[in-house]
Amino acid sequence: MSGPDSPESQTKVFGGVVYECVRCGTKVNADELAQLPEIKCICGYRVLKKARPPVVKQVKSI
Ligand SMILES: [Zn+2]
Fold first, then answer.
1. What's the pLDDT tens digit per position in 2-61?
2. 20 C-alpha to ligand 1 centroid (Å)
3. Which of 5, 16, 35, 45 can pair with 23 through a Cys bridge, CB separation 3.0 to 4.6 Å?
């Protein structure tokens, strides 16, 4: 039986801000970018746009 110390409980959920490289489309978490010395994609391109993660819309059922 798995207890409360399961590895899944260590998974961090970030603010949800994701940046996407306008050149290659690679998505990078804002938290990962913060750890880099400069805002830069792995491909070397520096232009990143803010990409929204998929938002689940609440649909009201009548
Ligand atoms: Zn890129």
1. 556 655 544 555 467 899 999 999 999 888 888 889 889 999 999 999 987 666 778 888
2. 8
3. 45
Dist. CA 58 → ligand 1 center (Å):
33
Separation between Cα atoms, residue 13 and residue 18, nearest integer Å: 12
Per-domain boundaries in the chain: 15-51
Length of the chain: 62
Q: How far is the CA of 32 from the centre of ligand 1 (A)?
A: 14
- Burial environment of residue 40 by CB neighbours within 10 A (0 to 12, 13 to 18, 19 or more): middle
